[in-house]
UniProtKB/TrEMBL annotation:
Belongs to the bacterial solute-binding protein 1 family. This is Extracellular solute-binding protein. Its main location: other. Pfam families: SBP_bac_8. Coiled coil: none annotated. Residues 1-27 form the signal peptide. It comes from Kribbella jiaozuonensis.
């Protein structure tokens, strides 16, 4: 489908509400006056040059991801030079799973250092703790050579201008071809790395791979006689949820309240909607009250794990993997992670639910956030910019290459065993390889799971099914200083109210007054800044 420079990707309500902190991270890091839409639009983005050596079994499009039924029998050795410079390189990142063994106890990490030609020293924190750690390190000025910068970081233009390298001359236009696997990242993803009229980082692309819908345990539903569920409306979906709940047996349908999914049934915007140059937030769109009432109804019926309102993301993932819950609202990235963390054995299976209309027809699907993070290079690093870009390029080698095989699976015999041409991870491999390399740089996700061709087939099928119904975030590629500073605080108030409403502690009627407060407290100003940025960018 046609894609404009702004409407390409978006975060969705849950992602948009995340901010690192509600206050400036660094003294003097107020947004730079040069961070204008006109200046940013004038930046020549890296030229996209698709790496064509690997042919997918399930070809994708500019939206649907490529799928592979097996790993190529003869992986391409794509990079001959050692990217490092012999000196230690420091990196700070989040980790989606458990913190892995330290380098002295981790043979994957040790082999990685040999292949990089530099010791990679990684400071890690869990997904739940990373934002706080990031803010603390920024405030203290204690920065690594390579920094995982969350997209929701307040006042990110000023922060990057003060602390990060300007990479424009090294990556703009055809200059990126020196780093062919960075050039293999589609141009649209680079728009999230442009601030102050310059390129300030390398994107870690997500987009379709981060698109979220209900993941469900096929084995658990099959045990109830439910195969290939396809509810035609909310009530049929609700009936399935009730069927999958047995509270006395410590089993519930859901890990959390699927309000975002219900909003998609109702066709609500993906964060921000633009029509004729006018922006509308998801919070003020018609249908919110219906979504909240339906969510409240689900909580009252007991189909949601009652601990969800106090649990962290890691606990919810454990409920799904352990069979305490049959549904979780998450992405294609999480789909693969669940297979990686599988504790249920061979019977374990996952699939994804489409979105019906709330009453009938088809619902909409919110396109996933464009970027997991921006990878910035410390302006004060002792490494050359070329070295750090070569490391990022090595991390972005795509599926089917020897570099990807090692990066994702480790060393044969210890971290994986071969099943035909497929590298099947061992328990040691799962534990040792999870050190966060994908957050330095990465290729776009390939739909694949070792030894299970049905996984990419299911993933490719649902992506094809929803591709024409994707809804994009109109604010992507536009910068609002007020949104950067206040979004977390403003949306946090609405999220708190939403939680109170769905638990029956507040009335649905309290939503509309809260949205008016949201608008008067900064929402209207954000709208105006987005509209101005949209106009300055040429309205496209």
């Amino acid at each position: 489908m046609p894609v404009s420079r702004r409407t390409f990707l978006g975060g969705g309500l849950a992602a948009a509400a995340v901010a690192v902190t509600g206050t400036p991270l660094l003294a003097g890091c107020a947004s730079d006056k040069k961070n204008t839409a006109a200046a940013n639009s004038a930046v020549k983005l890296p030229t996209y040059t698709k790496y064509g050596e690997i042919k997918p079994d399930l070809p994708g499009t500019d939206v649907v991801l490529d799928g592979f039924l097996k790993y190529p029998a003869s992986p391409v050795k794509a990079i001959t030079d050692v990217p490092g410079d012999g000196k230690p390189i420091t990196f700070m990142t989040n980790i989606p799973g458990a913190i892995p063994p330290s380098v002295d106890k981790n043979q994957f990490w040790q082999e990685l250092n040999k292949r990089l030609g530099s010791e990679l020293q990684i400071s890690m924190a869990s997904n739940d703790e990373y934002n706080d750690k990031f803010a603390t390190r920024i405030a203290g000025g204690d920065l690594p050579d390579i920094l995982n910068v969350p997209p929701g970081t307040p006042q990110i233009p000023g922060l990057l201008k003060a602390k990060a390298m300007d990479l424009t001359e090294h990556l703009s236009g055809d200059a990126v071809k020196k780093y062919p696997f960075l050039a293999n990242i589609p141009t649209e993803f680079w728009k999230g790395c442009v601030f102050n009229g310059a390129i300030y980082g390398v994107p870690v692309p997500r987009g379709m791979s981060r698109t979220s819908l209900p993941l469900y345990r096929t084995d658990l539903l099959a045990a109830k006689g439910i195969k290939d569920p396809a509810p035609k409306n909310f009530e049929e979906f609700f009936d399935i949820c009730k069927e999958m709940t047995a509270a006395k047996e410590n089993r519930w349908a859901w890990t959390r309240v699927p309000t975002s999914y219900i909003r998609m049934m109702l066709g609500l915007p993906n964060n921000w909607k633009q029509e004729g140059g006018k922006f509308t937030s998801v919070f003020e769109a018609d249908g919110n009250e219906d979504a909240l009432e339906a969510s409240r109804k689900m909580v009252a019926a007991g189909v949601i794990n009652p601990d969800t309102f106090s649990a962290k993301a890691a606990a919810r993932k454990q409920w799904f993997n352990g069979g305490t819950a049959a549904f979780d609202y998450d992405s294609f990235v999480a789909w693969n992670q669940y297979y990686s963390d599988n504790t249920a054995g061979d019977a374990f299976g996952v699939n994804m639910l489409d979105v019906p209309g709330f009453s009938s027809g088809d619902g909409k699907v919110w396109m996933g956030a464009a970027l997991n993070n921006v990878t910035a290079f410390n302006k004060s690093t002792k490494h050359s910019v070329e070295t750090l870009l070569k490391v990022a390029n090595w991390m972005a080698a795509p599926f089917g290459t020897e570099e990807y095989l090692f990066r994702k699976y480790g060393v044969a015999g210890r971290h994986y065993s071969m099943q035909g041409t497929d590298p099947v991870p061992t328990k040691t491999g799962v534990v040792e390889t999870g050190i966060g390399l994908q957050y330095i740089s990465d290729s776009t996700l390939a739909l694949y799971w070792a030894g299970k061709p049905d996984v990419p087939q299911k993933q490719h099928a649902i992506q094809q099914k929803v591709a024409d119904r994707l809804v994009y975030d109109a604010s992507y590629g536009l910068y609002s200083d007020t949104m950067s500073k206040q979004w977390g605080q403003l949306t946090g108030v609405l999220t708190d109210l939403e939680n109170q409403i769905v638990q029956g502690k507040k009335q649905v009627s309290e939503w509309a007054p809260a949205v008016k407060t949201f608008l008067s407290s900064g929402g209207e100003k954000i709208r105006g800044e987005l509209q101005d940025a949209f106009t300055a960018a040429g309205g496209k």
